[in-house]
């Protein structure tokens, strides 16, 4: 390097690159830290001001759902200061009857769908659920906000469901439908689908077999379930016509088992027999010591009353079964129906006391009706434990009071008296077996037929009973076909998985399972509260 003089650095190398006249001194680092800290503080102050005093446009993760859009400028409506969303904040708007959670508690979610109060107790009905159903779970742990205006907060992500349920998805380790394991139910009917489809096709001149099915299976407006089968709507065109009659039946005497005539019932005027005074006497034909009735009606009161009398004669004690239209076993799983029938029978029996001029009787009648009203209100409370066993009687024949000949004669009368009924119904212990009017196959899920009917025909899925294959078969062939009322003509999960998979259509949990209480049932849900 060549130097040009004192105090001058000159240049260096053969290229004569210049050298600065003074050394480069880096600025102080402490000044950079101060400037950066002040900047960060200003940004933090702005965010805090925006969060508490402004519209929180900076702090938000994303737009609120449309249901909460009016709260976009009021973060404090949901969030506590420097905290997450609490259940108390949710309850302010969603619970109309106080600030505490009531109809939207986590345990009420269980009760809403199961209608089983036992699930509110610790450990009941749970196999692998990490929560005690009595413990309150934060609403925000499942219902996530700030996902956009079109987001639906009740459309829960599968990860929240699968965190508790021991399977991976609908297509991986999802359990088989519960009703498939049952295979058959006890509908309490003698019924064959194929034969009835044949008759409906002839009667209505229907070319499409599926329309013949829909003649009886009438979908509800929501498309999820079907209306219960009703005799007056679906059956009376062919069954119990004006020519239907009972066989000649022996008339009851002091020494002989038999049936009571209309006149005898009028004279006895027993509770619940007020109908006898309004029944047409021309429907009965008395010939010597026997009586015959024609026509016969569905739930014919004369037949039902005589069955009740024969039951009391043949069996030691029928208990509360005498208050029911049919037996308590089998049939509809809704226990409330049993209690409603029993209360209705007692009200009809009490009605006969209205004609009594006694003030004491009238006063007691008012008390009886008041008590029956309280019973009905109590039984309609979903939190009330209803015991079906109270209506189930271990029938024991009166072998100590009746001879074997009398028992056989009594059973023969029961068979003949119920002969018009036995074309469809089952009779046990002089009692009609309860009919299951509606197969409640999906108790924890929903199925919308409207969403599927464009993709599949009814018989594409409901093929357990081979209707089309044996539609025009003769009677001998039909008797060999597996077609009984007990068979559930419902597809298995494999049929659903053909379409509901990641490649075809939605297989999310919320596609079929809707866990959230229905707001339209708020008045009913209030009964679920403690």
Topology (elements, then pairings):
Layout lengths: L10 E2 L4 E2 L10 H24 L34 H8 L11 H9 L43 H5 L15 H5 L10 H12 L4 H6 L16 H5 L13 E2 L11 H7 L15 E4 L2 E4 L7 H14 L20 H17 L7 H21 L24 H14 L9 E2 L2 E2 L25 H4 L13 H6 L12 H5 L24 H4 L5
Antiparallel strand pairs: 1-2, 3-5, 4-5, 6-7
Description of the molecule:
The protein has helices spanning 29-52, 87-94, 106-114, 158-162, 178-182, 193-204, 209-214, 231-235, 262-268, 301-314, 335-351, 359-379, 404-417, 458-461, 475-480, 493-497, 522-525; strands at 11-12, 17-18, 249-250, 284-287, 290-293, 427-428, 431-432. By secondary structure, the protein is mainly alpha-helical. It has 4 domains: 1-59, no CATH class; 63-154 and 514-530, no CATH class; 178-238 and 448-509, no CATH class; 249-432, no CATH class. The strands form 3 sheets. The chain has a 3-stranded antiparallel β-sheet. Helix 11 runs antiparallel to helix 12. The longest helix is centred in the N-terminal third of the chain and has 24 residues, at 29-52. The radius of gyration is 38 Å and the shape is elongated.
């Amino acid at each position: 390097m060549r130097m040009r003089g004192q105090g001058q650095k000159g240049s260096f190398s053969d290229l004569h690159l210049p050298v600065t006249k003074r050394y480069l001194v880096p600025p102080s680092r402490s000044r950079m830290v101060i400037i950066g800290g002040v900047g960060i503080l200003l940004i933090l102050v702005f965010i805090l001001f925006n969060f508490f005093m402004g519209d929180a446009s900076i702090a938000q993760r994303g737009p609120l759902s449309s249901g909460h859009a009016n709260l976009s400028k009021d973060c404090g409506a949901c969030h506590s200061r420097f905290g997450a969303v609490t259940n108390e904040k949710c309850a302010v708007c969603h619970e109309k009857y106080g600030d505490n959670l009531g109809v939207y508690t986590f345990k009420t979610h269980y009760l809403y769908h199961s209608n089983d109060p036992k699930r509110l107790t610790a450990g009941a009905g749970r196999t692998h659920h990490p929560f005690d159903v009595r413990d309150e779970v934060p609403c925000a742990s499942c219902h996530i906000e700030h996902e956009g205006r079109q987001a639906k907060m009740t459309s829960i992500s599968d990860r929240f469901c699968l965190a508790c349920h021991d399977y991976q998805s609908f297509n991986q380790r999802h359990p088989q439908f519960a009703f498939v394991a049952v295979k058959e139910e006890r509908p309490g009917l003698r019924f064959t689908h194929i034969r009835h489809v044949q008759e409906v096709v002839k009667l209505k001149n229907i070319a499409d077999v599926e329309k013949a099915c829909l003649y009886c299976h009438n979908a509800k407006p929501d498309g999820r379930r079907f209306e219960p089968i009703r005799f007056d709507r679906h059956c009376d065109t062919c069954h119990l016509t004006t020519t239907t009659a009972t066989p000649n039946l022996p008339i009851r005497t002091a020494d002989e088992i038999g049936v009571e005539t209309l006149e005898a019932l009028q004279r006895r005027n027993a509770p619940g027999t007020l109908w006898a005074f309004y029944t047409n006497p021309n429907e009965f034909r008395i010939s010597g010591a026997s009586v015959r009735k024609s026509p016969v009606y569905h739930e014919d009161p004369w037949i039902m009353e005589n069955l009740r009398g024969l039951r009391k004669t043949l069996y030691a004690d029928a208990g509360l079964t005498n208050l029911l239209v049919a037996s308590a076993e089998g049939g509809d799983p809704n226990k409330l129906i049993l209690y409603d029938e029993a209360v209705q029978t007692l009200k009809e029996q009490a009605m006969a006391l209205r004609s009594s001029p006694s003030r004491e009787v009238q006063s007691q009648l008012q008390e009886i009706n008041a008590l029956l009203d309280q019973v009905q209100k109590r039984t309609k409370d979903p939190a009330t434990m209803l015991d079906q066993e109270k209506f189930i009687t271990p029938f024991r024949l009166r072998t100590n009071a009746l001879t074997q000949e009398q028992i056989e004669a009594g059973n023969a009368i029961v068979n003949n008296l119920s002969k018009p009924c036995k074309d469809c119904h089952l009779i046990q212990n002089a009692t009609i077996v309860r009919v299951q009017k509606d197969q409640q196959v999906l108790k924890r899920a929903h199925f919308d037929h409207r969403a599927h009917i464009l993709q599949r025909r009814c018989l594409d899925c409901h093929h357990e009973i081979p209707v089309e294959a044996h539609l025009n078969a003769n009677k001998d062939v039909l008797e060999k076909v597996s077609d009984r009322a007990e068979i559930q003509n419902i597809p298995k999960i494999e049929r659903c998985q053909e379409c509901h998979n990641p490649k075809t259509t939605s297989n999310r949990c919320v596609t079929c399972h809707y866990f959230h209480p229905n707001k339209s049932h708020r008045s009913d849900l209030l009964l679920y509260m403690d």
